[in-house]
Write a structure and sequence with these properties.
With 491 residues, the chain is an alpha/beta fold. The protein has helices at residues 24-39, 51-60, 96-102, 107-116, 133-140, 152-164, 196-200, 209-224, 235-248, 274-284, 302-315, 334-337, 351-356, 369-378, 391-402, 421-433, 435-455, 460-472, 485-490; strands at residues 15-19, 44-49, 67-70, 123-126, 144-148, 183-185, 193-195, 229-231, 253-255, 289-293, 318-322, 342-345, 360-365, 382-384, 405-407, 475-477, 480-482.
Length: 491
């Protein structure tokens, strides 16, 4: 039986069950949501995961006063490597849809646990890739919302694809007389022009397109039939697109971020990580540092990473690079030649802590939404290099609309094309040393202040979360559903 908390003060609170998709990038913001709910005294929380992910989740939930329930992941699932319980363990993105569908095998355990929860569950919050949880919530009579870890902009652009099928007219070889790719003008937002690559990149390599399209349809239907969506964004960042969604698409979306600001401060350690000491020394020397991190899901070829290494060496700026996989070869003598000016880290790092460090003045990123929000929250401008999923949409939004980033271009202008060392060097120098870099740094500083205001008590994100709980949460009293206190007053 799942018991929310032993703390007396949680017994009269709504009891929210949270179940993220089994991938670190999807789990982390939902862990932050649990902390935010606890810190503001809004709800008791029960968090679901699997044994293979439990240690990571348990560590992240420390201090959130949340219960943790482990659902046993089935063994010997066709198409999934033995022992793999998270998307990071997949050998290719082609098996992503298979893995997402396989999570539905957890449904009996989830429903049994939800049925036994004490106090009874008031609300179920799940990742949209767990599309099957909508049926579980209906079976048990629990309101359900989807937690979207992508931008409102990207989600609206997905709706554009569904409505207008731009790929019926756009072709991969469409180019104008200057060699630029053909574009589709978004009818609802005529200032936005998207390419074939922007629309096809979400589905990864060609082998995954059909199963990913099928999966996308399943999650879209589940979201449409749910009670709403939580979006990890904030009013000052994406008000136009959240408002469009709420007025013209639906279901209701509540912007409650950036949730990375709910991450509790790290406990003082006996010894600082070596990378933190290195950054402290850079501050003492008055040096500005570029942070480089290119995501955890997309597999980047060794040859491409060597181009990055060569580009960083050519750029002649100080950098810290979180590299994966840890045994990757970055080229003969690279680390020795850049020693002192650059630091390659092959262990886990606290990305937000790095970005918040006063020496860090730029971020070369894959433009995954978690990373974008952490950069914005820390006030660090970005160089964006989208590779798959929602990343092309994010990059366009950051560069063209928010103007808080500069774009890294592949040699053939496709998402999966090569980025040369010359391009890496050029973009890094623009970001760290150029006039455009000064302008994007100014813009992101303004958004950083807005992000902090949004998450503060009484801020728009805090208010949105309280409104959602007030509208959706129910309690079970003596076996009967009881309206929330706000609903009683309205009645």
């Amino acid at each position: 039986m799942a018991v929310a908390s032993s703390s007396p003060e949680t017994h009269e609170l709504p009891h929210i069950a949270i179940f993220p998709f089994l991938a670190k990038g999807h789990t982390i913001p939902m862990i932050h949501l649990a902390h935010y709910l606890h810190r503001h005294g809004l709800a008791a929380v029960t968090f679901f995961t699997t044994p293979g992910n439990a240690a990571f989740v348990r560590d992240g939930l420390s201090g959130a006063d949340a219960a943790l329930v482990e659902l046993a992941f089935p063994a010997d699932v066709p198409g999934i490597p033995p022992g793999v319980e998270s998307a990071e363990g997949l050998t290719s993105m082609a098996s992503f849809a298979v893995f997402a569908d396989a999570t539905s095998l957890l449904r009996p355990q989830l429903e049994a646990s939800l049925a036994e929860m004490q106090p009874p569950a008031s609300l179920l919050v799940t990742d949209p890739f767990l599309y099957w949880t909508k049926a579980s919530a209906e079976t048990l009579g629990i309101p359900k919302v989807s937690f979207f870890g992508i931008s409102a902009f990207a989600h609206v652009m997905r709706e554009v694809r569904v409505r207008h099928d731009p790929c019926a007219t756009l072709k991969p070889d469409d180019v104008d007389e200057d060699g630029n790719p053909g574009t589709f003008t978004v009818p609802e937002f005529p200032h936005i022009k998207l390419t074939f690559e922007d629309f096809m990149a979400p589905f990864g390599d060609p082998a995954s397109i059909a199963p990913m399209m099928e999966l996308d349809g399943k999650l879209g239907k589940a979201v449409e039939e749910s009670q709403g969506m939580i979006i990890n964004t904030f009013h000052g960042l994406e008000a136009q697109y959240v408002d469009f969604w709420n007025q013209h698409v639906g279901p209701r979306a509540w912007p409650v971020g950036p949730l990375c600001l709910a991450q509790p401060a790290s406990a003082p350690a006996e010894a600082q990580p070596s990378w933190m000491e290195w950054l402290d020394n850079k501050t003492a020397d008055g040096r500005a540092v570029l942070y480089v991190a290119l995501g955890t899901l997309a597999a980047i070829p060794e040859s491409q990473l060597k181009e990055v290494a060569d580009g960083l060496e050519r750029a002649e700026v100080d950098f810290i690079w979180a590299v994966r996989p840890k045994n990757i070869d970055l080229g003969s003598g690279f680390e020795e030649r850049t020693k002192g000016r650059g630091l390659v880290v092959r262990e886990w790092v606290d990305q937000l802590e790095i970005l918040k460090h006063e020496s860090v003045r730029g971020f070369l990123s894959h433009s995954g939404w978690n990373s974008v929000l952490e950069g914005v929250a820390a006030g660090v401008p970005l160089a964006v290099w989208p590779m798959h999923a929602d990343q092309p949409f994010n990059a366009k939004f950051l560069v063209d609309e928010l103007k808080i980033a500069v774009r890294v271009q592949t040699s053939d202008r496709t998402i999966r094309g090569l980025v040369t060392s010359e391009e890496v060097s050029k973009v890094v120098r623009v970001l760290m040393l150029g006039e455009e870099g000064v302008e994007v740094a100014k813009n992101v500083a303004e958004l950083s202040a807005s992000a902090k205001e949004a998450m503060a008590e009484g801020g728009p994100s805090c208010k949105a979360l309280k409104d959602m709980i007030s509208e959706l949460c129910v309690k079970k009293v003596n076996g009967n559903l009881e309206e929330s206190q706000d609903e009683k007053v309205d009645a």
